[in-house]
Amino acid sequence: MNTVLSRANSLFAFSLSVMAALTFGCFITTAFKDRSVPVDISVTKVMLKNVDDFTGPREKSDLGFVYFDVTADLHPIFDWNVKQLFLYLSAEYSTKSNALNQVVLWDKIVLRGDNTKLNLKEMKSKYFFFDDGNGLRANKNITLTLSWNVVPNAGILPLITGSGHISVPFPDTYETARSY
Amino acid sequence: MLSLDFLDDVRRMNKRQLYYQVLNFGMIVSSALMIWKGLMVVTGSESPIVVVLSGSMEPAFHRGDLLFLTNRAEDPIRVGEIVVFRIEGREIPIVHRVLKIHEKFVPYIGIVTILMNDYPKFKYAVLCMLGLFVLVHRE
Questions:
Q1: Which of A23, A29, A61, B44 is such that its CA lies 20 to 30 A from the CA of A122?
Q2: Do A147 and B80 touch (CB under 8 A)?
Q3: Which residues in chain B have their CB less than 8 angstroms from residue A159's CB?
Q4: Considering the entire predicted model, what is its pTM?
Q5: Membrane spanning segments where (chain A) (predicted)?
Q6: How far, in Å, CA of B96 to CA of A146, rounded?
Q7: What is the mean pLDDT of residues B96-115?
Q8: DSSP 8-state symbol, A141
Q9: Domain residue ranges in chain B
């Protein structure tokens, strides 16, 4: 320990180990928290079209449109270890050809410091709700849930689903009018 | 000047010390390899630690971040999860988020998109510490 360089070396090594221990502490104090809050989703309108699908292997696929309202209070989830929440609304259903389908319709990033009371009305889906085929028509059970991915400063990123989901049926006929 | 000093050092060591140094170095290299392979087995992933190369994952992952991955067979891929995958013929792994799943009996990923963050500093710290251990030990 007689040169500047060796002192700087040990100082650096020590501070790195301290930071690692701090990071681990940050992780372990919030690792077992329950991050679920009640969520209220309601659907105002559902529409179905059968259009050209350039993303899949077939000519035409079912395209669904869902308009929804979402209310939730995300405040209890945020603590010193949460950097942001990635919210997403997903639709889950099953068809004759596919046992499990999950499609994300809409998402939002809620950063720490943002308004945590979610009160959205008449929202349109952000992504196209294409089915892999024609399984949406007359499908009685499409379940919409709001989930979030908790992004911590240090630790695992869990996917939590809000308690409170809604099931909607899709219509039996396709909408042929040019409206969106 | 510097190179001559180094050679003097080596000449001062007798054969046994030289062999010892080489063996020491070999031990460090092989223990690093063991840790890496052990990680591969424990996580079930081909490449348990990857670096984020592009800025596509917005406020979540930045360029140069390290990601720690697991690939357990009993965890099916679900919507909203972040996956790291490699396309055939391309060496670079891609980090994205799953947007759609249409599962028959064999699951496959549909369109994926961006976002998310992780705890890269912790991983960086561990790896740097390993490197520094070597440095300090040499003293």
A1: A61
A2: yes
A3: 78, 80-81
A4: 0.71
A5: 12-32
A6: 20
A7: 56
A8: -
A9: 1-42, 44-102, 107-137
Half-sphere exposure of A124 (CA within 13 A, CB side): 6
Rounded mean pLDDT, B95-119? 53
Q: Looking at the complex, does the CB of residue A129 fall below 8 Å from at least one CB of chain B? A: no
pLDDT band per the 50, 70, 90 thresholds, residue B133? low
Domain layout of chain A by residue ranges = 1-32, 33-168
CA distance A81 to B61: 16
Which run of H or of E encompasses A21? helix A4-29
The pair of three-digit structure tokens given for residue B54, joined into one six-digit string:
């592009």
Nearest CA in chain B to A161: B80
For residue B103, give the nearest of A20, A100, A159 by CB distance: A100
User: ipTM value of the model?
Assistant: 0.75
Structure tokens that stand for A121 in this block: 């009305």
CATH number for domain A33-168, candidates 2.60.40, 1.25.10, 1.20.58, 2.40.10: 2.60.40
Tokens 């054969």, residue located: B15
